[in-house]
Amino acid sequence: MHSGVLPNALRRLREDKSDVHIALYNYRSAEQLTGLRQRSLDIALVCDPPPADDPDLEAAQVLDDPMLLAIPEGHPLAVAKHLTPEDLAAQKWIGVMHEEGALRHDNFIAACAKAGFTPDIAMEATEPLAALGLVAAGLGLTMIQQSLRHQAPAGVVLRELAWFSYRTALWAAWHKVNLRPLVGNFRATLLHSSSEMAGASAV
After folding, report:
1. Which of 12, 71, 182, 203 has its CA 20 to 30 A from that of 95?
2. Backbone φ/ψ region at 87: left (φ over 0), alpha (ψ -120 to 50), beta
3. CATH code at 38?
4. How many angstroms separate the CA atoms of 190 and 49, rounded?
5. Are residues 161 and 74 in the same domain?
């Protein structure tokens, strides 16, 4: 939701079909895929797509976000000319424990180790915007996806790290048998919205 992929698509849907009823549910990826199979959900946004050979479901990637380093304003690293893995290893970190569980967290830690540092996680937040609030309070550093850069509060400086390769991915999934044309139209709108965002972020 915070990345803008879903809000942009919903706004376009409203412009074309102002009388349509929209219901949003906050489910884990596995629950969403079950909902698609049971036809209780029309579209799912999941961290991991269904298998490529799934007999019922299809998916397309709608987000592939590089990460930005969030630093408290006034911190020496906020104005440092070059940032190295050694610089980051010496700092206190705010981790983000994703709702999907430990796998994504472990993948992030593994990416840090591959880049040459291990984050000293002093505290954890349940979602990225909460972590940014803690950074603004001067309590540590964190990483957020690039699409959240406009959500950063005052007191936070965002820096790109060309040598850090971890990315945040998101897929849209749906049932192969489309029972309603409106669902197909919204899926096309969602994929178009995500491609536009990808083009904008590359500029």
Report:
1. 203
2. alpha
3. 3.40.190.10
4. 16
5. yes
User: CA-CA distance, 170 to 47, in Å (whole number)?
Assistant: 5
**Is-contact 93 120, C-beta < 8 A?**
yes
| Domains: count for the chain | 2
Q: Which domain holds residue 71?
A: 65-166
Cα separation, 157 vs 80, in Å, equals 11
| 151, amino acid identity | Q
- Cβ neighbours of residue 51 under 8 Å, at least 6 residues apart? none
Residues 103 and 91 in one domain: yes
Q: pLDDT tens track of the chain, all 203 residues? A: 666 778 888 888 888 888 888 899 988 888 999 999 999 999 999 988 899 999 999 999 988 889 999 999 999 999 999 999 999 999 999 998 766 555 677 888 899 999 999 999 999 998 889 999 999 999 999 999 898 888 899 999 999 999 998 888 889 999 999 878 888 888 888 888 777 655 554 43
> Are 59 and 69 within one domain?
no
Reading phi first (left if > 0) and then psi (alpha if -120 to 50, else beta), residue 119 is in beta
Q: Specify the long-range contacts of residues 130-136, CB closer than 8 Å, at least 24 apart.
A: 131/70, 131/94, 131/95, 131/96, 132/70, 132/156, 134/94, 135/70, 135/71, 135/72, 135/94, 136/72, 136/73
